[in-house]
């Protein structure tokens, strides 16, 4: 059985591939499917563009990149055998990988590297210099002839002949080593510096003329024998063939086929579960706290976008975390669509309506939303505070914290951890080394930093626990949100509905309180400590805060009695009643604002207090002050002073106001900035293959039509009556004929048809090219000839 001829181009190679092979190509290089290529030729053109090839190279692991460098070094075409010899290991499987990605084409005995790959790998692939013919090509014909003479070769003043002879001689096995046998001291030292790259070195007056008889010093000795070449007025280069000889014929020191081992540490399962569940609960709590904090007074949006340094610092203080954690909290909330710029004339960062929906979900569902948005996002909170190209600090929620590589690195790091046994952690340093091996052309300091930041962020979110991938994180990684929520729910302690109120004015919750109960309790008490149990502390300020929020003493005590398993201790009841009794002794209403109290001495203290200076208080009557500030500001300052003011209505009655929760309008979550087309689904892959095949068939049919037209006989012009007679004769004999035809636009064409009838100025015929019955106007037929005539 005859073998198929070798493809002459990448397009022919792609055309000959099976549908399954094209599906693999589109899967591994998704940019080739957007938009759908119209034929194999179009696909080959797109696959060899610089941008697409660059993306493909960045996806290669170390062995694939090494083999690509070997192919760039070897002459084109080459063979798998030659590649394996130059790499130092069997390269058939890696060559097949490059062929699947259309970076390489042709059979194993005639491999062609795509020219864009060669260009992108640069002039010094694997640290090797240019070929001898290029490296020595700067020399004049006379100097080339001198070099031939010095090496004992036949002299030629034809530059092409001279370069061919020099290249063949110096590339021959053993030539370089034979020349170095009598090399003076220092020559091998120079070569050792250039052998493994970079292959260039700085030398003064590098282009000076040297001969073997007059050479002095190691560099002159090498130049006079063609073992070094001049690449510029002050630069020398080690030619590629010489470098390969010094490397023992190998392009790399060693084939790097295996990824570096991860430095792992086993963890106790309960430690992983406990750490991840605790972190998940804390992350959700902090995002909830942020929503409540910004819902009462949202910070302003910077003119250039983002959150100011002072506002981040205030947010960190309010959440009782450091600024780095605060940046992580606000960025997580923003990516999840829970806070946003409200879009007003003086914009502020406020919770979105989605926050109100989110906060009503149970904890596992809330966590799945936060962690899922982080996993698919491209924001890098750890870059907050770092300097940009203009030496300006980057702000939280600013426009320059997106990095497309963040998404790739997160998936890669978690994928490596998922590949380990459950409850096993890996060091960030070993993860950096593994990712460098997986994508060496993407290696950078930012990418290395992203590995550590990914571990940090994932640990804070509870995706990791004690450095190991948690069960919930493992499910989230495969996009199984239901399983992720169930895994976290199983790891979390069951929410409680009761607390232990104690006589020392503390409350102890033996587990996480249900969300609505925790919120209500935190309006009356402050959290003193967290852990397996949460301890709350009641004091005058915390109770006053609850009263300021609109609760009465009876409502607060009824809530505490319902929450407590042991009733309300007497000291706590006394505290609540006493604060309520004093609450509102000072009243604030509208004038600009006025301050009223039954005790004149209390008002005198306020006038004298330096903390009230900004209010510009002045006495109107013994029990009345007026202020040059609005009532809300007066209330805020007096609460800081500690006098428990209350608002007063126009009728003089106490006004208990629940604070208004501020919200932005509906806002979608910010889109990730990936710079990469999405991975094509099964339907798109099938459509891409079908489109290519259809385009190839159209091209083949067009070629067949051209071939048939070339075979058609001459069609001399004839009058309509002659054409009709010949056509009717063909109908009677059932013979195919060629007709010349001019369409309505004046375009002339030829058709191979079998006439079925001629009547009423119309010809009905079977068109062999169209494979269908068509009708032609007799007056547009320019000539008729019998097929095969």
TrEMBL record:
Region annotation (Disordered) ranges: 649-680, 693-717
Domain Helicase XPB/Ssl2 N-terminal: 499-621
Coiled-coil annotated residue ranges, if any: none
Domain WYL residues, every copy: 725-784
Domain of life: Bacteria
Stored Pfam families: Helicase_C_3, WYL
Start-end of Basic and acidic residues biased regions: 701-711
Pro residues composition-biased segments: 667-680
PROSITE patterns according to UniProt: WYL (PS52050)
TM region(s), chain numbering: none
Annotated protein name in UniProt: Helicase XPB/Ssl2 N-terminal domain-containing protein
Native organism: Kineococcus radiotolerans
